[in-house]
Structures
1.
Amino acid sequence: MKPGVNVGMKEAGWLRQPRVLWVTRIFPNRVEPLSCAFQRQQLAALSRRCAVEVLAAIPYHPGVSLLGERTRPGRLVAVPARDEIDGVPVVHARAPYLPGAGRVLAPVNAPLYLAGLLPYIPRLRGRFDVVLGAWLYPDACAAALLARMLGLPYAVKAHGTDVNVVARWRSVRPLVGSALRSAACAIGVSRPMVEALVALGAPKERAVLVRNGVDRALFRPADRGAARRELGLPAHGRIVTFVGHVSREKGIHELLRAFEALGSDGSEPVHLVIVGDGPERAAVEQAAARRDRERAPADLREGRGRILAVGARPLSAVARHMAATDLLVLPSWAEGTPNVVLEALAAARPVVATRVGGIPDVVTPGRTGLLVPPRDAGALGRALREALARAWDEDAFAEAAPPSWEESAEALRRLLARAAFGDDGRAAA
């Protein structure tokens, strides 16, 4: 296998289907049902092709139940030990962790994570063919040790910040490098990420591209006006939409400054819709309230639109917001290949985003969007203005459309089968 090769397109299938143990610290549960929607979709599609069980770590430390709703670990106490999500069995292991470990003490959390998985080893033996660590750190490091205890091969999957930020910390890089060197394969969701995995220690011949997909039934070209009416969004004017974690690292403050600088162009208003939740949501709501107080009735005719913070929404509602918008904006400081960008392309909506991670791998400037440097509100504002003024060619979006989740899951299944059984179908050593 070579970097950048989308496995599954040219290879023959295996007679045996791999039994996959998926190890992750970020997965939807009863308390956080909207968490990591892309992983949920890929897993559901994979489970229709082979047996999959999820070992999803829940952060735990002594006294966590006393914290109640004040902290995330306190809220997660209510998550059941066993569950089923989209037909996939999920075991929620309680994994100890060191709160606020930071860069220096971060290596402590990998062995603590493994300690939370150890009690499950007896019931896991003999039931799986391959282990997959779903994030580079600490998931992949803990999954590597767990796989060795079970006598199984393992694969590593990386997505974004785990590669571009955390794995580059000097304190954890040796642990990440060790996990990558021994993995049957290291999976990236973009070409730049595959290259980053090789730089971190993955053997080049075992670093592989498997692109994320989208739900094509939800994300497709649709009537903009109908979607706006359904969502109760302004019918008059243009709409710019942000979808994601509302945080500093997602560039939310640069976005607010860029939007404010758009000003009035003497024509139609431009509205900003923020879909998502996070630590900076209060700042967004304050900006929205301030704008509403300052906006005169005539502003609606003069191009000064509103800021609308609608909070986190299920995937079906995100798809309707994508249909309602004129463009997607994502000014992140660091990214992998964000699924919201793929979903915008599938919905034939242009993307204004930062030139980071795998975004340049999927957005073609001038054809499907515009790219700007991170942390540059001025460049972001100019790109938004230019994108709103352009006439975009829908044929370009059809050509750039990402794979479906079914196609993505099939590529992943073939890769995991190779990791489990080898090229010739025999059990891997």
2.
Amino acid sequence: MPMKFEFAFSKSHRPAGGVAVLLQVAGAKEAAGAAVADPEGVLPKAAKVGKFTGKALKTLDIVAPHGSSADRILLLGLGDASALTSHDWLKAGGAAAAKLRSAEKVTVFLDAPGVDVTGKAAADFALGMEMNAYSFDSYKTKKSDDEPKSQQKPVKVTIVTGTVIAAKKAFSVAQAVGEGVFLARDLVNEPANVLGPVEFAAKAKELEKLGVEVEILTEREMKKLGMGALLGVAQGSSRPPRLVVMQWKGGKAKEKPLAFVGKGVVFDTGGISIKPASGMEEMKGDMGGAAAVTGLMHVLAARQANVNAVGIIGLVENMPDGSAQRPGDIVTSMSGQTIEVINTDAEGRLVLCDALWYCNDRFKPQAMIDLATLTGAIMVALSSHYAGLFSNDDRLAERLLAAGIATQERLWRMPLGKEFDKMIDSKFADMKNTGGRHGGSVTAAQFLKRFVKDTPWAHLDIAGTAMGSPTDEINQSWGSGFGVRLLDELVRTSYEA
């Protein structure tokens, strides 16, 4: 069962049992809250014996400390005080949560000597705890034998800091971010037999409770719009496709919106160009882009972002039945451009091209960003540590790169160019949907570029980061929720008034 936390912020607090978490920077002689939690002064000797120096994310656990009102003291290192970033505070909170699996109540002394702790830092620490504690075990009927019964109720956490008012205000925003990340993680982690296009659309519809306007286009509406590329992917499945349009109107009435478009292939067999059986179960996560867009729209609404934003997700299932499209088929996209389907496993770009054209045509956005678990080629290039960034606009690309550094949802800019257009030119149609193995992620992006006109646009290939990416202090989940914090940071720093 995942841990749940109930947070309170206070200027002072004396622990009565439970765990006292004390933060200490590298080289400091004393930790935060030492005078309160360690009146007998056992920590200096314990730190010397345990060789604890305050190095970042290193811990020292002291059980039943003599003279303390706490049952246990956890020393947590912050590292270099002058180099602490927002992400460092998130990781510190995650590192603390990882050591608190059996706790019932926790007191965190945040104001380490030598550190200027802001309200946002306190909120980031708390959010880091929550992000580490997330797990997806909805379908387990038996819990592990060693899981304490206490985890059935929230762990009460008191964070002691001098910035109480600012911390409470910042934490309300941090909670909105956490909710969006967890929503995206839940969507990616859900099995495909539970989360089809219709069910995913229903999940997005729930954002109306937060003030998001949600429209759901069915197959009938998409046929009228001429979305032959998206519908061609869906035709092999008995589960009908959906296009979901989410609008958050938090900016000025006539201000052009920011647009976010997500690939939502709820399960990808590859179609007639079927994938190998090994690892195919992971293709339930091929809707990671749509999950991130949905999570982002939750965040913007929950924190009442001062921006107009549109989120569009194309939801389909790619299956190989008798009605499925074939290699060699030619489809007509909403733009009127024709596409020769060389490989039915290059389906995500077919979904996105119609969604991008629809978005651009209807909303005339000031910028469009799409997210998609699009190519295995991007994982060959960047592994699972960076997402690929392709863009027709240097300013937008620079803003995204900066947001990636701030959140550590890192991006690496990849090339676009006319020479790649030649690789996707077709003998029989305006283009083909794949240019072959070489430069696979680049030709996929070059394909999408044909559907955005002159609108500032960026494509994020998140195939290596949205699912199965390396775990760390703030993510222990298979579905990472990658993109939610990144794009919220982009909106916050570059587009909100």
